[in-house]
Amino acid sequence: MTTPFLYHSVEPENSKASYTEYDNVDFVMNFEGRKLICNTVRLEGLLRVTTAGANLPTPGGNIDKRIYLDPSVGIHSVLDGIQTSILTLGSVENFNGYSRYVGMTEDCTTFHNDMCNSENLSELKFPFLDIMPSILTGEEAVDDANLNNPNSFSFKPQFVLNTASQVNNQGLGMSFNKTGTIRVVFSLARINDVLFGPDVDGTTNYTLTNLRLVFTSMPEDNVENNTTHKVKYHIKQSILSRTTNISSNIPAKCSGVSCSFIAQSKENTTVDNSINRENFPDLQELQFLFNNNTNEYITYQIRDHDEVMLRYLQSMGNPNRSRTQLTENAGKHSYGVGLDFQGLVDLSNQTFNVVLNSNSEISSYSMHLYFHSMIEV
Amino acid sequence: MSFYKSSIKTSLIDPASYQVNRRAEFRFGKDQVLLSNMRLANIGIVTGAAYTPNKAAGLMEVIKSITLYDGSQVLDQMLKFDMYSAFKNYNKDNSTNYNLSTWLNDSGMGYNVKSKRRGNTTGPRIQSFKNPTTTKTTEATTPKIWLDLKECLPILQSLLYVPTSVFKNLRLVVEFNDNVAANQTTTTPFLIVDEMWDSSVKNKLLTEFKGVDFVSVETDSLVIDQVFKVGDVTDKPQSITRQLKGFNNKTLNRMFVAKQPSVVVGADTIRTLGSQLHFNETDNIRINGRNLLVGNGIDTPAKSLASLTDTYGTCNSYLNYQAIPDAYNTQALLSANEADMLGLQDYRCFRVGERVLQLDYQFGRLGVFETDVATSNALANNSSTTLHFFGEVPKRLQVNEDKTYLIAYN
Question: Given CB atoms, is A137 within the 8 Å cutoff of chain B?
């Protein structure tokens, strides 16, 4: 009898006792004779944060260790990039700057209170920063504080296999006959991109153990269906003056672009959150310049701050619910700019330009651009 | 467009028989076509002293079971309704609980996050938006709730209307818990029913009524012994495998497990209606000779939350740990009730999707030793625990030409 649902659990190919910064973790997904059910792929494991080789002490009234994960990003912070290749198609996505993009997604689609939902907690996402030192001490037994496990996590990476839509209502199954084995490589981020706070120092470390890639499959029904998948192209550029023109070449048809900023002085430091989505200082004018799909030259010139935010939210897909309020912008952690192209635009044969004009002197900033594209499998 | 037109009449039905703290039975007239959106209202208790309802189930804890009968034929039923409703309230997102459910059923689900930036520098950061309203000593003032029967009787979700010409002796039986609070007296509930009044539409609906497929929730349970035996002096793992027979020869879709310790925990919050998280707990199913999940199955709190989300959808939780260092810079992270509830809503979920010939449940935990055996076994973590299984089994209601019918497992 064929099993209707099968839960797969894959060990890393390069199996190790633990993984930390700069490690690559390779998984090969094999589901011969079956169909992978898209949007069910999870990475599971245990996270232990240590300082000077010891577990974090319990924070008390005087705060022992102020060490944080970005609460909106949670365990996604440990991933710097995800490379996905399908045997019959080759590389389908090379997603760098991954954790920042997760933060942008959360900024644009959730509110603080939404962090009290189960799908976020299993990804170590929480409503506010100050809970993190307590969380990172580990999972302790209620009756014996000496019994302490690492933080468990189970999260759905926002990558090509988890962003599928069905075509012609023919289901989300992806046949092994069509794909062959699928290889997924997770690149782990450096420590200073994951952990931050006044007490992070050279002895602070994180390790991941018991890593498993889990997914669900269904029996092969011999229905030849297609699925569409959102893929991202990430580009990082520097901004060094009050007026800046950022030019990009993207080898794909794209439906939009979303961007966020951070001062270069705050990147890769122990104290600051390297994936913060900072305000761009005193933005006066924003322009997007490109040819649309009928080869008309398009210029979006945006001067109104609210319109900048609205366009950003639309580029991320859901303008109904977000944290990008003016008060949040004052906190400098949920800002971005972007544009929904209202259709697919071929950027492979043209240069896409973003012009930023500020009224203030700009110290050096990094701009992260994420182009939204799509593939069909 | 308004739902209510002249062809639909709304009736308030009093119980045909009612025994305080025990049972209420509602009966229906002949040749009616009732809409399936039946609501039970005025559910509550009057108590000798103020009593705070269960934080998860709200005043739904007053009801023990609800059964829809046709004569002696059970059409659908929800046993362990109090425990099931505690789960159903948990199985909603924070916004829905915060804005809606907490008002409809007097629960305390739905959490408010108060950040420092919004001026909260002293109070707890996470707390319930609204705690349950305490019961009162008079019927006029005590809180009463409203229940949509579709939430607990899945046949009503699938049926659009319930014709009493087919179900000739239709009756709804509500059984109450008689020991929710000291000196309690249940308030008399009434049923709100919409009836199709237009005879031409009624005839058309009756002609077209051929039956329906629906998913019924059935229950089973097993008891796990306490961890420690005489002579034990240190932490000790416990691992058991037990066979469940309640789902044999039925197709089992989804199933959740509520783990009820014999020791009452969360005295002012969830009490025994939640699901205890044990230390180093592992849960797995062995179905028809093979393990459903690889290895130990669900063996961490995060996997538990993830499987719950993937199987049943979003649930309203702020943390699934047994404990957390609950202060940061002299400010509490959780309010007293939320700290009290930690680790009491750890439901384990499975999507099976096949016909059960043999079903074994594998359960493991680490017993945490404290002082002596008696003290250790008195901890919820180590105590004797009842596992309550709520499984979805598909059924079919088939109506024949002569308006007789058959209910069978699919």
Answer: yes
